[in-house]
Amino acid sequence: MLSLSFPEAMAIGELAAVGITLASAVTDWRRGEIPNWLTFPPLVIGPLFWLLVGGFNGTGLELLLRSVLGIAVCSIVPYLLWRRNALGGGDVKIVAALGGLVHGYYGLEMILAGLIASSIYALLRLAWEGKLLRTLANSFYLALNPILPKAWRREIARENMATVRMGGGFFVGALVVALSHHPELWS
Questions:
Q1: Among 23, 55, 99, 124, which residue is least crowded by beta carbons within 10 Å?
Q2: What is the per-residue pLDDT across 28-47, written as a single tens digit (0 to 9) for each?
Q3: Residue 79 phi/psi, 5° resolution?
């Protein structure tokens, strides 16, 4: 059993989340993928860490369960997006790892902040490239095509779609949330 308080253990989980998302941002930027060797270990280590923090009793089992539920909660929507080819598999695994390291609530916070950071980056990049308005129009039709009358529907060509690598956004999200929970680090 590790002799850590819950806030100390959560700080370690947040630090690990920032480190793993930093590594995923680098590999995503360089190769366009987030490799399994980076995402699978935290999926195992996160729950085991929380079991050791709580001990092999009711508290440890509760923390282990929170970690496993964090993995499920943080990965269910990204998994469904992956099934629709709207998100990469590495992105699903990295958000699942966040849930295992910092539990569901903080994991969802990090994911939401990461999605906001990625969205801002995507909008700025599209504006810089002069593709923002066309991409927004395509997004409008992608969202509404299923409910529009057939005469109003527009087929969107694959080459008119834009992609964003999410690793950097998840790093920014993890860093912002970790720093917001520990203002003593930057004040």
A1: 124
A2: 999 999 999 999 999 999 99
A3: -65, -45
- 3 state SS for the chain: CCCCCHHHHHHHHHHHHHHHHHHHHHHHHHHCCCCHHHHHHHHHHHHHHHHHHHCCCHHHHHHHHHHHHHHHHHHHHHHHHHHCCCCCHHHHHHHHHHHHHHHHHHHHHHHHHHHHHHHHHHHHHHHHHCCHHHHHHHHHHHHHCCCCCHHHCCCCCHHHCCCCCCHHHHHHHHHHHHHHHCHHHCC
* Start-to-end C-alpha separation, the chain: 33
Distance CA 170, CA 124 (A): 17
Residue 132 Cα distances to 125, 128, 149, 160, angstroms: 8, 8, 26, 11
Tell me the chain's radius of gyration from C-alpha atoms. 19
Do 176 and 13 meet the contact criterion of CB atoms below 8 Å apart?
A: no
Mean pLDDT, the chain, whole residue set: 92
Closest CA to 174 of 13, 6, 3, 5: 13
